[in-house]
TrEMBL record:
Cross-referenced InterPro entries: dITP/XTP_pyrophosphatase, ITPase-like_fam, RdgB/HAM1
SUPFAM superfamilies according to UniProt: ITPase-like
Coiled coil: none
Active site positions, chain numbering: 84 (proton acceptor)
Catalytic activity: dITP + H2O = dIMP + diphosphate + H(+); ITP + H2O = IMP + diphosphate + H(+); XTP + H2O = XMP + diphosphate + H(+)
Cofactor binding remark: Binds 1 Mg(2+) ion per subunit.
Binding site for Mg(2+): 55, 84
Residues reported in the UniProt entry to bind substrate: 23-28, 85, 168-171, 191, 196-197
Cited PANTHER family: INOSINE TRIPHOSPHATE PYROPHOSPHATASE, INOSINE TRIPHOSPHATE PYROPHOSPHATASE/HAM1 PROTEIN
Enzyme Commission number(s) of this protein: 3.6.1.66
Gene: rdgB
Residue ranges crossing the lipid bilayer per the database entry: none
CDD domains named among the record's database cross-references: HAM1
Protein name (Swiss-Prot/TrEMBL): dITP/XTP pyrophosphatase
Length: 209
């Protein structure tokens, strides 16, 4: 769905040209670039432009995505696309949620973060629920301040031990409903078809291209 009560069809269209991906996460940038392939866009990351990583002070995925997109667009003078996504674990009351990246620490050690989730789930009670979902919020900002929002979700469950060496982040511990493989075991095309990011991107593509 598009965010903040906006109509599904965005008024502002994204024209071919340079687009900043407001992320310093190389895996996420590659995934987003693949989803945007063939759209006539010259994709460049915030890291390549040496743009700073703003502090994510929002209380929702949409707010954090907008914050990152606005900063990248303001500083670069180009349209900017930001993604804020995370893993929400039912047994942990939705954590790590918007703090998913922060659970991995400054070194972005997601092996440590997945172990932390497992320990917390185990401590949450006898026979804890292992259901979880990923959320992805996209914000597309222009230098004049215009922003469009989109949000996607995919439900699944946690697996232990983590499996697979594809993808990034928490992908090795997440198995989407209806599949017997984790995101980290899937081919990129299949993951992009069913993932929270893929859902949000299809909404964005339908609206702004």
């Amino acid at each position: 769905m598009s965010g903040e009560g906006k109509e599904p069809q965005a008024i502002r269209k994204l024209t071919p040209g340079r687009l900043v991906i407001a992320s310093h996460n190389a895996g996420k940038v590659r995934e987003i670039a693949a989803l945007l392939a063939g759209r006539g866009l010259d994709v460049v990351s915030a890291a390549e432009l040496d743009l700073p990583e703003p502090e994510e002070t929002g209380t929702t995925f949409v707010m954090n995505a907008e914050l990152k997109a606005r900063v990248a667009s303001d500083l670069s003078g180009l349209p900017a696309l930001a993604d804020d996504s995370g893993l929400c674990v039912d047994a942990l009351g939705g954590d790590p949620g918007i703090f998913s990246a922060r659970w991995a620490g400054e070194s972005k050690d997601f092996g440590m973060a997945m172990d932390l989730i497992e320990r917390n789930v185990a401590a949450s009670g006898p026979a804890p629920a292992r259901t979880a979902h990923f959320v992805c919020a996209l914000a597309l900002a222009w230098p004049d301040g215009h922003v469009e929002w989109f949000e996607g979700r995919v439900d699944g469950s946690l697996v232990t031990p983590p499996r697979g060496d594809k993808g990034h982040g928490y992908d090795p511990m997440f198995q989407p409903d209806g599949y017997d493989t984790t995101f980290a075991e899937m081919d990129e095309d299949l993951k992009n078809e069913i993932s929270h990011r893929g859902v949000a991107f299809r909404q964005m593509v339908a609206a702004v291209f």
